[in-house]
Write a structure and sequence with these properties.
- Helices cover 36% and strands 26% of the residues.
- It is α+β, with helices and mostly antiparallel strands and 213 residues long.
- It has an eight-stranded mixed beta sheet.
- About 11% of the residues have low confidence.
């Protein structure tokens, strides 16, 4: 009885050693989604579609320009009476706070105009200069903006007032765009507390950096 039992034990030990050798070295579990206060971290990254727009300096701006680093992407228009200036002011405060707390993690803020009839590059440059000279403004014809709006679920509705006067109703979401031009998180209408935005953004960045090790 001892002979067969010993053979079974030896075979089992050989198989165990072989399995340990053949298994990949890195068996770490997937990185946990960072706990955030107001941001929603997407379970899967959302790639941005290819678009070709124009920035506030009159230069070509494409999806490829967002493939490196991190960005905070916000849609609005320069004649916006409330949500746009409020959000841009918050984002300017966020940038100043990150300059102090983690300048190496500071994102680029990109403001996409959904009012191409009035928001030409010069208008965008003048408007964004009231908040932060480093903000990037981009615009383009409606057909160029449509794929980006559709992919991100940004709704835009033009509300005529009289003649040349009109208002543009749109989402107030701020999108966190990571490397590869992929959305990794969103601030869905809750980007009104600069401290919370900074804290969540740093959690997202540091969580992503740990996962990449």
């Amino acid at each position: 009885m001892i002979g067969p039992l010993l053979r079974i034990l030896v075979v089992g030990l050989v198989l165990l050693v072989a399995a340990m050798v053949l298994l990949p070295r890195d068996r770490r579990p997937p990185a946990a989604t960072p706990a955030t206060e107001v941001a929603t971290v997407l379970p899967q990254r959302l790639p941005l579609p290819d678009v070709a727009l124009t920035d506030h300096a009159g230069a070509r701006f494409t999806t490829a320009d967002m493939r490196d680093g991190y960005r905070l992407l916000f849609f609005g228009f320069t004649h916006c009476p409330d949500i746009c200036p409020l959000t841009l002011q918050v984002l300017a405060t966020v940038q100043r706070e990150l300059d102090v707390r983690a300048p190496e993690l500071k994102p680029q803020v990109v403001f996409v105009s959904v009012d191409p009839r009035r928001d030409d590059p010069q208008r965008l440059r003048d408007y964004l200069g009231n908040f932060d000279a480093e903000f990037v403004g981009v615009t383009g014809p409606e057909e160029a903006l449509e794929p980006l709006l559709r992919a991100l679920g940004v709704t835009v509705h033009t509300q005529e007032i009289d003649g040349e006067r009109y208002n543009v109703i749109h989402n107030g979401t701020v999108f966190v765009v990571g490397p590869g031009a992929e959305v990794v998180a969103i601030f869905g209408g809750s980007a009104h507390d600069a401290d919370a935005v900074v804290s969540d953004y740093l959690r997202i960045r540091r969580g992503a950096d740990v996962a990449a090790l």
